[in-house]
Amino acid sequence: MVTSPRPDIIYTKVDEAPELASASLLPIIQRFAAAAGVSVGTKDISLAGRILATFPDFLTEEQRIPDDLAELGELVKTPDANVIKLPNISASVPQLVAAIRELQAKGFALPDYPESPATEDEKKIRARYDTIKGSAVNPVLREGNSDRRAAKAVKAFAQANPHRMGVWSADSKTRVASMSGGDFRSNETSATLDKESTASIVLETANGETVLKDGVSYPAGTVVDATFMSAQALDAFLAAEIEKTKAEGVLFSLHMKATMMKVSDPIIFGHAVKTFLAPVFEAHGEAMAELGVNPNQGLGALLDKVSSNAGITAAIEACMADRPPMYMVNSDKGITNLHVPSDVIIDASMPALIRAGGKGWGPDGKEHDAVCVIPDDSYAPVYDEAINFFKANGKLNPATAGTVQNLGLMAQKAEEYGSHPTTFEIPEDGTVKMVLEDGTVLHEHRVEQGDIWRSASARKAPIEDWVNLAIERQKTTGYRSIFWLDETRAHDAELIAYVKPILDAKGVSDKFEIMAPRDATRASLETITKGENTIAITGNVLRDYLTDLFPILELATSAKMLSIVKLMQGGGLFETGAGGSAPKHVQQLHEENHLRWDSLGEFCALGESLKFLADAKDNARARVLGEAVEDATQGVLDNGRSPSRKVGEPDNRDSHYWFARYWAEALAAQGDDAALAEEFTPIAAALAENETAITNELAAPQGDPADTGGYYTADPAKLASVMRPSATLNEIIG
Ligand SMILES: NC(=O)C1=CN([C@@H]2O[C@H](COP(=O)(O)OP(=O)(O)OC[C@H]3O[C@@H](n4cnc5c(N)ncnc54)[C@H](OP(=O)(O)O)[C@@H]3O)[C@@H](O)[C@H]2O)C=CC1
Ligand SMILES: O=C(O)CCC(=O)C(=O)O
Ligand SMILES: [Mg+2]
């Protein structure tokens, strides 16, 4: 067998809008890179690809595909990694089930997703599917800490062309509601291990001891936390907030991260569904269970399951009529906040609401104030404080606002985002103990049935790397630098015990502040309001939340962010933007053949990846290509070539034409590499001469429905015909 050498750069195959965009952009990238002898290959980390790679035994020989994620997971632990990572779906159960159905309909004999596995076989299949569920890709690839910021050109562009911001009024009724006790924040205990150890997690009850998890192992210096959310406290809180929301006459909304927190958050979401429909569950609970209802999968799946039972559907209608109106995902289609656990994802949803002046869409298709329920109080204060700030000071002005950069502790499954293997819904009242190999009981909690107990950890090497990255960034920029750590929270206190000595040892303690998330939010908003800049040095969850929140306020979207993961073994992972895969954009393309996805994140990542290749492999031509990418990106911004949101106006494909043109022009104009200049001079000329033909050909198909041959997996020929409709451009690109 001949194995081809690994490509210089790996570009990931993903899902939804970014994958549609890749069908148009990647051929351009591959053509331009090839001219400089740089190879760009692909690896499939899409949801559909992950499913097929996990079930080879159900597929024919021809249908089988390799496990690209496993391969990439190894690659990122080597200095050779140079990966451009686009956003991919982190699937909730309804999305996973839909993807399986689509693949089955295409002739892949995959097993159904066993919703309530009974036999051993079903349990095994369920366990295999569960490895694909939720955020199954990012934690595998993120072997480094996170550096997210707006490139200078991008920030300057946003200041010169400020986007529309919703108006905040001082009497807005919008507010954040979170628990005042019984939540993860208040039950947390934390300890730093002085030596390496394995640990087991056991539940002791009146009926004996159950091992929940055995053999977890931690290197010396790991910060290990444990905590739980009380189910009773959660239900009481949700019931009270539903009543209060109704009295306040605003929308009820719930903001969770059911994708990355794939074990805990769907359960919390299920509590909200059950509490919202409490009278229905009281009257018809047994019948609903018999119909296979699982509230954790949302109201959408619930309504499907009970659709044939008129008694239950009538009870649901009556109950909903008596509840506060719900914040809607799609009011035209009647899709509520509680329909699908992954429709409303806190990092994107809260900033969108804050940017809109505290407004969400109601069932009447109009904007209203909303109560934003975020049960756990660990990070809710960030949004609460932001809302208070804008109520008091009015909306942010993107024309004059400074920027908040982020350095996030992320490597090696840091903190809550790595906690799903050690998260449990407690089956019976008792005591959970986390016991080290020498018998030490590290953590101990009294729990009740239904409580959600979890342990999270952060390792020493990533923590030290993160503090050092912060020191470097502060030195390079001189910006106000804040560690978002709360000395009164157990986990944060352990981190502070790492941070302070390192800052002291390096003699830079006076350059850094340490503040609890609420205070840091206020300080950061005050700083950027003055037009100054700040660095938010945060844990993993706030990395995620803040790199949507501030970009959405400053730049209108997090899609334009530079998002670099400095892999701890020396490689580079270049994420594109800080947002997701924009399902709404796919819907628009399918309905009216307009793709509003902005590939600026891809452009920025490509430039960084080429420059990294130049440095790592001493590849001068890669540097020329990378510098030309920066010129091209600047060209797209300066000349307003980003996609429009509206059908009939230039879209994603048009912006790629301009990117290719500016890239070719920059390569033709540069003097560092004569051969490249010579090769790209005629290409640049052809792209310019044929501008009218190309832009007309790109615009022509807009308005009619587009068929890409599938949602989770496209038909390559159909996809190419939709995304590359200009024969003239295709001919020039070759
Ligand atoms: N790195 C990753 O792999 C990530 C993956 N995800 C996954 O993405 C999916 C959707 O997540 P969701 O929370 O809805 O967030 P998204 O970021 O996908 O969408 C929120 C909104 O942001 C805007 N947006 C995002 N990216 C772009 C872009 N490139 N160009 C223009 N607008 C953009 C769109 O606004 P508008 O509709 O107004 O145009 C979009 O509807 C989920 O499956 C989630 O798990 C989420 C975050 C990161
Ligand atoms: O992995 C995911 O599910 C989402 C990741 C995310 O939101 C982020 O990194 O900003
Ligand atoms: Mg995010």
TrEMBL record:
Cofactor(s) needed by this chain: Mg(2+); Mn(2+)
Lineage: superkingdom: Bacteria
Reaction catalysed by this enzyme: D-threo-isocitrate + NADP(+) = 2-oxoglutarate + CO2 + NADPH
EC class (word): oxidoreductase
Chain coiled-coil ranges: none
Keywords: Glyoxylate bypass, Magnesium, Metal-binding, NADP, Oxidoreductase, Tricarboxylic acid cycle
An example molecular function term from Gene Ontology annotations: isocitrate dehydrogenase (NADP+) activity
Alphabetical list of SUPFAM superfamilies matching this protein: Isocitrate/Isopropylmalate dehydrogenase-like
Positions that bind substrate: S135, A136, V137, N138, P139, V140, L141, R142
Keyword Manganese attached: no
Binding-site residues, D-threo-isocitrate: R148, R543
UniProt-annotated binding residues for Mg(2+): D347, D544, D548
Presence of the UniProt keyword Oxidoreductase in the record: yes
Cofactor: binding comment: Binds 1 Mg(2+) or Mn(2+) ion per subunit.
Chain positions recorded as NADP(+) binding sites: K85, L86, P87, N88, I89, S90, N138, G580, S581, H585, R596, W597, D598, R645
Enzyme Commission code: 1.1.1.42
GO biological process: glyoxylate cycle; tricarboxylic acid cycle
Family note: Belongs to the monomeric-type IDH family.
Protein name, per record: Isocitrate dehydrogenase [NADP]
Organism listed in the record: Roseovarius aestuarii
Gene expressing this chain: icd
